[in-house]
Amino acid sequence: MMTVPASASLSEALELACAALRVAAAADPAGQPAAVQGRCLQLAEQAAAIGTAAQARILAAFTAGQGYTADAQYGAVPWLMFRTGVTKGAARGHVGWARRAAAHPEVTAALAEGTVLSESMARTICRWTGRLPEDCRDSADAILVAAARAGAREEDLAALAAEIYARSLPPDDGPQDRFADRSVRLETTFEGAGVIAGELTPECAALVGAVLEALGAPAGAGDLRTHDQRYHDALQEAMRRLAASGLLPERAGQPVKALVHVSLAELRAMDADTVLEEEWITAVRGRWAAARAAAAAGGSDGGAWLDGDAARGVSCDAMLVPVVTGEVDPGAVEDLVRLCVTLGGHHGPGGCAGHGEPDDPAGQGHGGPGEAGDRGQAGDPAGRDRSGHGCCAGAAPLTAHAREMLERQIISRAVDLVSGPGGLASFLRRQQLGARLAG
Fold this sequence. Notes:
This protein has 17 helices and 2 strands. By secondary structure, the protein is mostly helical. Mean pLDDT is 75; it is low at 348-393.
């Protein structure tokens, strides 16, 4: 049996306790008699209770002194997550016990003994007496702890707590916190999974139980789901039916909607993407030609890009169109630039994109024959410009077929870079997704 010296510091005592628990964890219990195994389980529960009380008191002092600020943390929860590696839910549980230690010293002291209250029973007593008026709380804790010390079981303590609560209710002569007995918390965990925890009023518990029983019945002899799994599916089915019933309140004048996020890459990877993409490219080439023909007329289509407050103001009464978005692919940008340069190098008789004048940074340089500073002067068979370059001498005119192929490649790369209303993403969404997502 390990003994802790009276002169040992707090950290030394905990280190010795951890060393003893490591020995117990490394031992093989399979060879021990059932009586020994049972005794070990009792001792393990006592160790957990004592550890909870010690941790609660230490964390309460640590929080009161804002010890977490030394590690540039803003509270005890993030500090515990950062320094001890626990999850957010566990960190909140530890902080909850630190608060209980301050509000229920009698229960915490009994928990620290290890033989009076288990951690779960102590937490339950704190929940019961936490609903009482503050001036009755310590007395109620003392009564319940004394009953537990005398051997009272959970159902006995529950009956005693209910009687104390009924006797301690204040007269109804003023506003009270009528919502202190209810809470539900939904936390999202790994890959969108969720954890629900909370306390339900008797009325809410009765309604939830009735719904889960009705929708969670076994589906037949082949239903291998456990009771908890059936209740999970029952809850999901109840929420699905409620959302589809039209009974949920509207928000900002609109019914509740689900935002379905679809990446452009997923749409392009679906079965019919190649044929549909070719169809869209053909349509875009036609619109592109029409836009080039009408460019001389100038003017815009009446649309404007807005953000911030201006966008929020306009969108209040506007019809909103879903837009499937993708991320910029730097490789696609490089391909697009290279293809544009290739296209620009085939101006044929009209000129060359290879050299521009000092005031022509775009490199659009040379115009038609005979113009100042362009492809060549009249009678210059070498086709040299005034700077002596002969780059355009061998440039072949771009055939209609070659231009079409380059245009198709440029459009194909462009869809990797950007999409929008009426673009490829929207086209694929309408063609490949179901009716509810294609609208």
